[in-house]
């Protein structure tokens, strides 16, 4: 089963690949505005989503290591 950060990273990579394929499509089946506007937009959104997925993955790894190394979780002071 995919975790949230894995799904986010995978979705970002797929969006970058699809946007690149749309932008560098040489067959010319799509209208020109779709290739030149939508392709780079999908790549940019895919990059942002992939970066967020990597950040979530790094943060989740740090959080899991912090809770297992100390053994106890401090309660917040109210």
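Sequence proposed for the structure above (78 residues):
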């Amino acid at each position: 089963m995919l975790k949230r950060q894995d799904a986010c990273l995978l979705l970002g990579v797929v969006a970058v690949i699809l946007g690149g394929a749309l932008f560098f499509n040489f067959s010319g089946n799509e209208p020109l505005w779709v290739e030149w506007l939508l392709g780079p937009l999908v790549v940019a959104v895919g990059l942002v989503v992939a970066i967020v997925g990597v950040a979530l993955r790094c943060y989740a790894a740090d959080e899991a290591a912090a809770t297992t190394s100390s053994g106890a979780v401090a309660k917040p002071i109210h």
